[in-house]
Design brief:
The structure holds two protein chains of two kinds. Chain A is α/β, with parallel strands linked by helices. Chain A contains eight helices and 19 strands. Chain A has two domains: 2-174, 3-Layer(aba) Sandwich (Rossmann fold); 201-320, TPP-binding domain (Rossmann fold). The longest helix of chain A has 15 residues, at 70-84. In chain B, helix 2 (68-77) packs across helix 5 and helix 3 crosses helix 4 (128-136). Classes of the chains: A alpha/beta, B alpha/beta. The complex binds flavin-adenine dinucleotide (2 copies).
């Protein structure tokens, strides 16, 4: 049996949970879903999940689980895993999963194969396909040792619309948990956004994005000249903003803005998944990179392998001509 | 405050990686190595906390003998001493094994705060720190962008998806995984490099009976699924062609 741990907040199911469910349904094994929270919100999510063709939905309802904490979720799901004894446990690789799932696996003496993009049989075993070295390679990784085996799936790796729906809603059962007093050591505050973004890159028609290939802040003028010549906004990968070379609100990616302009020109950006999720919906993607194997070329419509310090001035000149 | 920082040595970003003959790892015999990027930020955060609150910063690293290089670098940047965990079995260790080896070497030190990077640039399982917290029996929080310490408690700013954040507090001892960009890095000074030579490095042998729970069956270059139009030629030829196709084919300029 595959146990899928779904994620919800305030009664809203995280879409990525459907993708983890699709990954589980591929395997031709019985599937159950567990989701934690409290009260009506949780009940609503349970009912929503019941549309999937699965054996059952377990709702783990406890006032202390209303808001996510790592201690609370590790304790609750450790009880579920111990009680239901699944062969595998699947999750979506969200920030929340990153935080509690490795500890959950360790609590029950297992480990997590994280950030997988696929799963397939190989020599009588199940191989989990996952990127390594920032997407330059992929690896087939197999779990060793006794079940349950834990895996988390990169967001976007499976299509939520491939979900198989059941003829009738799956049964929803409450899974009672007790949490020891003091078991939850983290105290959380309400999530917030930093002061309103000064630039809204989502409205830009063209974006010139720059990555670590630019080497130093003193070279940013070159990028700005190209942006001006194209009538584009300047954006960046995270390391450029981390270094303070450009403000945070110009960052594209999972922890920055998500954009889909007509033209996205990536200069000296390797194409790590956390960057790609923020721009791969762009209509036309151009990549300039000196490394022909850089993963950015995997999403690019047009590519130039070369040194951006030669290519960018040449593009500016060609636009002028 | 007694702070541990876990740093991993990884192949430098610029190194042209190739899969090894066994097709289960990369050819890294002649590679150059560096400190995993988020770990450098974790180290910097530890040094800043020491400046504010006093105490000691101990750098911990598991890996083959070559990992001594990142340990030296951390000491040169200002860490007080180091624990280096060595062992043949660690060469093909998964995150749980590395965490076990680190936990065994760190447990008796009774650190009040343990900092790790949020994930490694090579394997990127993003879990060695989290598992280490479980093994040490201390609370944790991940992807941290700010750390405040008062009255034996931590208040930390956790990064969520899409530009959201959340403050979380917890008692010490605790473990935090640090996100790149939490601070601005300092680099080693000549004085620091000289001083590092006299700092204590305790070498600990990892237990021989660590059991792997994961196995890499094969590493390969990903198959290309998208038809990318690669534009060849000299920079000016390629640029002219690019401008032409953007105007006439894609019609985006
Ligand atoms: C079958 C197999 C074969 C492998 N072969 C090799 C090999 O030949 N050569 C090789 O170099 N690696 C090899 N590894 C890599 C392995 O040892 C990883 O370092 C380990 O799995 C840690 O996981 P991670 O890199 O994903 O770290 P993550 O969990 O992503 O790291 C998170 C944080 O934990 C800390 N951390 C992680 N590792 C260490 C460490 N070693 N010391 C101190 N702190 C650390 C850092 O602060 C880091 O930021 C192999 C792994 C496997 C599974
Ligand atoms: C939880 C989490 C959230 C993250 N969020 C984000 C995010 O929102 N946005 C984001 O971008 N990243 C994010 N990251 C970081 C991400 O994983 C990558 O580390 C980052 O995107 C790499 O940036 P880069 O491509 O600029 O740098 P690198 O990976 O260092 O790539 C630089 C590229 O430039 C090329 N290059 C070098 N010199 C030249 C030259 N002269 N001419 C042409 N090409 C050259 C190189 O070949 C290389 O491909 C996040 C990571 C984590 C773990």
């Amino acid at each position: 049996m595959v146990l899928v741990i779904a994620e919800q907040r305030d009664g809203v199911l995280n879409n990525a949970s459907w993708e983890a469910l699709v990954a589980a349904q591929q395997l031709d094994e019985p599937v159950r879903v567990a989701v934690a929270g409290a009260g009506d919100g949780l009940a609503a999510v349970g009912a929503e999940l019941a549309a999937a063709d699965v054996e059952s939905i377990l709702t783990v309802d406890h006032p202390e689980l209303e808001s996510y904490t790592p201690d609370g979720f590790v304790a609750a799901f450790a009880a579920v895993v111990t009680d239901t004894a699944p062969d595998r446990v699947f999750l979506a690789h969200t920030y929340q999963t990153r935080e509690f799932a490795p500890r959950l696996a360790a609590r029950v003496g297992r480990s997590l194969i994280a950030d997988c993009v696929g799963v397939r049989p190989r020599d009588g075993r199940l191989a989990f396909v996952r990127p390594m070295f920032q997407g330059k390679f992929v690896a087939d990784v197999a779990a060793a040792g006794p079940a349950p085996h834990f895996a988390s799936f990169q967001i976007g790796a499976f299509r939520p619309d491939a979900l198989e729906r059941g003829a009738a809603p799956a049964p929803v059962t409450a899974f009672p948990v007790t949490l020891e007093p003091g078991a939850i050591r983290q105290q959380i505050e309400v999530p917030f956004q930093e002061a309103k973004q000064a630039v809204d890159l989502t409205q830009a028609e063209r974006i010139v994005a720059v990555g670590r290939g630019i080497k130093g802040r003193e070279h940013l003028g070159l990028v700005e000249s190209l942006a001006t010549a194209l009538g584009a906004e300047v954006a960046a990968s995270r390391p450029i903003c981390d270094s303070g070379w450009l403000p945070m609100d110009r960052q594209i990616g999972s922890s920055g803005q998500t954009v889909a302009p007509k033209l996205y020109l990536a200069l000296g950006i390797s194409g790590a998944i956390q960057h790609l999720v923020g721009m791969k919906g762009s209509r036309t993607i151009v990549a300039v990179n000196k490394d022909a194997d850089a993963p950015i070329f995997e999403v690019a419509d047009y590519g130039i392998v070369g040194d951006l310090f030669d290519v960018v001035p040449a593009i500016i000149a060609a636009l002028d001509a | 405050m007694k702070i541990a920082v876990c740093v991993k040595q990884v192949v430098t970003r610029e190194w042209p990686l190739r899969v090894d003959e066994a097709r289960t790892w990369v050819e890294d015999r002649d590679a150059s190595f560096e400190m995993n990027e988020p770990d450098a930020y974790a180290l910097e955060e530890a040094l800043r906390l020491r400046e504010q609150h006093g105490g000691e910063v101990v750098v911990c690293s598991a890996g083959p003998a070559r990992a001594a290089q990142v340990v030296r670098e951390a000491l040169a940047r200002g860490a007080d001493r180091a624990i280096r965990v060595e062992g043949g079995g660690l060469a093909a260790a998964d995150a749980a094994m590395v965490a076990e080896a680190l936990a065994a070497a760190m447990r008796d030190e009774q650190f009040e705060l343990v900092l790790t990077g949020l994930q490694s640039d090579d394997q990127g399982f993003a879990q060695t720190g989290v598992v280490l917290a479980e093994l040490l029996g201390i609370p944790h929080a991940t992807i941290i962008m700010e750390v405040q310490v008062a009255d034996g408690r931590l208040r930390v700013k956790r990064e969520l998806e899409g530009g959201w954040f959340q403050w979380v507090s917890m008692p010490t001892p605790a473990l935090l995984t640090i996100q790149s960009g939490i601070n601005q890095l300092r680099y080693a000074t000549l004085k620091g490099i000289m001083a590092a030579k006299r700092k204590e490095v305790r070498v600990v042998e990892a237990a021989a009976d660590l059991v792997p729970r994961q196995e890499i069956l094969e590493i390969r270059v990903p198959e290309k699924t998208k038809q990318t139009h690669m534009i060849a030629g000299s920079p000016s030829e390629a640029a002219a062609e690019l401008v032409k196709v953007l105007r006439e084919e894609a019609r985006v300029i």
